[in-house]
Design a protein that fits this description.
Elements (H helix, E strand, L loop, with lengths): L5 H6 L28 H16 L7 H21 L5 H19 L1 H11 L7 H7 L11 H12 L3 H4 E4 L5 E2 L3 E8 L4 E7 L3 H19 L4 H6 L1 H12 L5 H17 L5 E2 L3 E6 L3 E5 L4 E2 L3 H6 L4 H19 L1 E3 L7 E3 L5 E3 L5 E3 L2 H14 L4 H10 L9 H7 L14 H17 L6 H20 L5 H24 L11 H7 L11 H30 L2
Parallel strand pairs: 5-11
Antiparallel strand pairs: 1-3, 2-3, 3-4, 4-7, 6-7, 8-10, 9-12, 10-11
């Protein structure tokens, strides 16, 4: 960004010193004068403490809801068992995933929210699950305006007309937890009002209890459940969703994220200001920021927005928040981002926010440094520190069992059977060592998958190898001293970047010097087509053997 002149700086809102907000402020933020911030850290701890209680498995199914859930899921599995179990593996798992997606839609908001987590988990969960659950994003009818009015008036303790000059009864969006309305305060500011569904907290708690009872019954019995690990998935879901049910936590997350952006100088991203007094457990009034939809690349470019810079700023800010301060947006997707006409990225919806304590943040730094320096042992140590491996896991044994001390395989040179075998062996080895995906690591991987896809949208022709190299150089030049201090080493002891490791992470075995995202996508498509052709050939051979 260009430097701001002294005269211009004097006209800017005072709260830009503490947070990355818009330069035209409907109000300014002073954390010392915000009543809903009082005790918010204790509230966050108390909310997290409810998770073990919700997950405690009872001897008997917890009420009628568990019976309903059990019926829907059992029916989905039985339909697959009698009609699709004996089909070719990919077809069989696709049919099972479709049955489960339909069951989740029948079960309502909590399960649709779980489906959203699955749909964003490409590379984490089985591809068949991801593809199917991508079709059930927020298919939840909006609550009536009467219900919304009652919730807002009850939460704010005033009639709607006392607070708002206008309130659009038709929501801008309706999701599983809440819906969002455009409004104008009586003081004239345009705002967005997020209103929680009145029944959703009770329903979520009942559903988590029922899920924790049913989940252990699924593991090892159906193919996608073996890979997805239902009990671990329910635990992850519970840890994620409980904080979304209190909008005071979300508003505090907004201020924390804005503060991190300001401290790192990343004013290319902005956060809507939550209202200093109009925030409660179930209502969140915030500044309205209008811009281009994340996918409207043509509109951005026509307005003179540099989409490559949008991508760079988003990725840099995301990594800085995680690595330097342990705070990052935990649910990046196109619906939570918009690009303002000046090219700044507005980041919204902070119900899911990743938070790393100092020990986990240090482990996270070690994971990043080890991954770029081809240090397999360091990566395993870091994963252990993040909770992905048990405290008693033997590092050397894990490295050996996962064959991390051997040259990486080139997946493009493996047959479908060989690749499937490799994946089975890897999964078996991970499970044998008690591996799991803790909440923070899962959120981070989900976000990185989204940002990977954002490259194809915003900057398909940039040289990935060069960009990654420049990003690492930026971090070591601007934050190398802090990174070294956190790792307990001197700056000159930070390992050099290993270009072979970077290429391997992109599934490129040969030593290329230039690689665009378009090139990478072509490689991925070629690999996918190869696997599909191998599967088809295998299916044809099996059909020939059955019907010579």
């Amino acid at each position: 960004m260009t430097a701001t002149s002294p005269d211009r700086a004097s006209d800017l809102p005072s709260d830009l010193a503490i947070g990355a907000f818009s330069e035209v402020a409907p109000w300014t933020i002073d954390p010392t004068l915000i009543p809903w911030l009082e005790g918010v850290d204790l509230l966050r701890d108390q909310t997290r403490d409810t998770v073990p209680h919700l997950l405690r498995r009872q001897l008997l199914p917890p009420g009628r809801r568990a019976i309903t859930i059990g019926y829907e899921i059992s029916a989905a599995i039985l339909r697959w068992y009698f009609t699709g179990r004996r089909k070719e593996k990919l077809v069989s798992r696709t049919q099972l995933s479709r049955n489960m997606r339909i069951a989740f839609e029948h079960l309502g908001p909590t399960f649709i929210k779980l489906g959203q987590i699955l749909s964003a988990g490409e590379g984490i969960f089985p591809q068949e699950l991801v593809s199917e659950f991508a079709q059930c994003r927020d298919r939840v009818p909006a609550d009536s305006f009467q219900v919304v009015r009652q919730t807002v008036e009850r939460e704010l303790g005033r009639s709607l007309t006392e607070v708002f000059a206008s309130f659009d009864p038709v929501p801008l969006a309706a999701a599983s937890i809440a819906q969002v309305h455009a409004a104008q305060l009586r003081t004239g500011e345009s705002v967005v009002v997020k209103v929680q569904r009145p029944y959703v907290k009770r329903l979520v708690h009942h559903d988590i209890a029922a899920m924790s009872w049913i989940a252990p019954l699924l593991g090892g019995r159906i193919p996608v459940a073996t890979l997805a690990n239902p009990p671990a998935l329910v635990e992850l879901f519970a840890e994620t969703i409980v904080e979304e049910l209190d909008f005071r936590l979300e508003a505090a997350n907004m201020l924390d994220f804005a503060s991190v952006l300001a401290r790192t100088g990343q004013h290319a991203l902005v956060v809507p200001r939550p209202h200093p007094s109009l925030v409660t457990e179930k209502v969140l009034v915030m500044e309205r920021l209008d811009g281009f939809e994340w996918g409207d690349v043509a509109g951005m470019r026509a307005a003179g927005v540099d989409t490559e810079e949008v991508l760079r700023a988003s990725l840099t800010a995301f990594l800085e928040g995680a690595i330097l301060y342990g705070v990052f947006h935990g649910d990046l997707h196109g619906g939570n981002l918009s690009v303002l006409p000046d090219g700044k990225v507005a980041v919204m919806d902070f119900g899911i926010t990743g938070r790393l304590d100092d020990l986990k943040r240090t482990a996270f730094i070690k994971l990043m440094v080890s991954a770029t320096s081809n240090d397999a042992r360091g990566q395993v140590e870091a994963l252990k520190g993040l909770g992905a491996l048990p405290p008693d896991a033997d590092i050397d044994t894990v490295v050996s069992d996962l064959r991390l001390d051997q040259p990486p395989l080139d997946p493009t040179r493996l047959s479908a059977d060989q690749l499937a075998s490799e994946l089975r062996d890897l999964t078996k080895a991970l499970l044998s060592h008690g591996a799991k995906l803790p909440k923070e690591l899962t959120l981070f991987i989900k976000d990185m998958i989204f940002l990977d896809q954002a490259v194809s949208l915003l900057a398909p022709d940039i040289d990935l190898l060069s960009e990654i190299g420049q990003l690492l150089t930026y971090f070591y030049e601007h934050h190398g001293e802090k990174i070294a201090q956190d790792l307990g080493i001197s700056p000159d002891e930070i390992p050099a970047v290993d270009t072979e490791s970077i290429r391997a992470s992109l599934m490129v075995a040969e030593p290329v010097d230039h690689l665009t995202y378009s090139d990478l996508r072509a490689r991925r498509e070629a690999l996918w087509n190869k696997l599909e052709n191998d599967r088809q050939d295998q299916g044809d051979r099996q059909d020939h053997l059955r019907n010579p």
